[in-house]
Amino acid sequence: MEFGAKISVSLTGKGLAHVDKLHWDARHEGHDLQAQVEAYKKRYGYYPGVVIADTLYGSRDNRSYLERKHIRFSGKPLRRPPKSTPENKDEIKRLKAQRRKEYRERIPIEGKFGQGKYGYRLNNIRAKRADTSAAWINSIFLVMNLLILVRVFICLRNLAAKIAFWVTKKCMPREIPFARVCQFISNRDSYLAARI
């Protein structure tokens, strides 16, 4: 961006993005973690169980803050890795697989930034004032969220149509084969007209 904006974004499980912090200061972004966790608590009423973040956020201060709040950080521990012994071999393997899985869960948030940059020109905002740039950035994230909500609405509409079709199909009066045959034999023209 022209001003070099720093954007802190959180992503819900449904794919909705929240711009938690937007600033133009030349400072380390890792200090924004505590504010983002508090914004999560304010938004949902409770703290998250785990924070899946970039290694940039894995400072000692952030980790101690997360420990005080009983929140687990998904990154590598800061201490030296333990020696592998036959007793702890399975535990080390499990923790490594868990970190790998959680690291893959970060792909959607990185993809959200990619979608904003390449699909909506988030990295090419040409506003002259900081407040105008902030409005553009928030509008871009709003549009991306609206597209997700439109997809959800379309899926719900299709589901409602299928349910309505199923209900009307089940509730329709059933034809009795004998009555159909009798009607066919007695009045052939009216049967064909009703069939067409």
Task: Describe the 3D structure.
The chain has 196 residues and is mainly alpha-helical. Strand 3 (50-51), helix 2 and strand 4 (72-73) form a beta-alpha-beta unit. It starts with 5 loop residues before the first strand and ends with a helix. It has seven helices and four strands; from the N terminus they run E-E-H-E-H-E-H-H-H-H-H. The radius of gyration is 28 Å and the shape is globular. It has a single domain (6-151), classed as Nucleotidyltransferase, domain 5, CATH 3.30.420. Strands 1-2 form a two-stranded antiparallel sheet. A two-stranded parallel ribbon has the order 3-4. It has helices spanning 33-44, 60-68, 89-104, 107-120, 130-171, 177-186, 188-195, and strands spanning 6-11, 17-23, 50-51, 72-73. Helices cover 57% and strands 9% of the residues. Residues 178-196 have low confidence and may be disordered. Helix 6 (177-186) crosses helix 7. The longest helix is centred in the C-terminal third of the chain and has 42 residues, at 130-171.
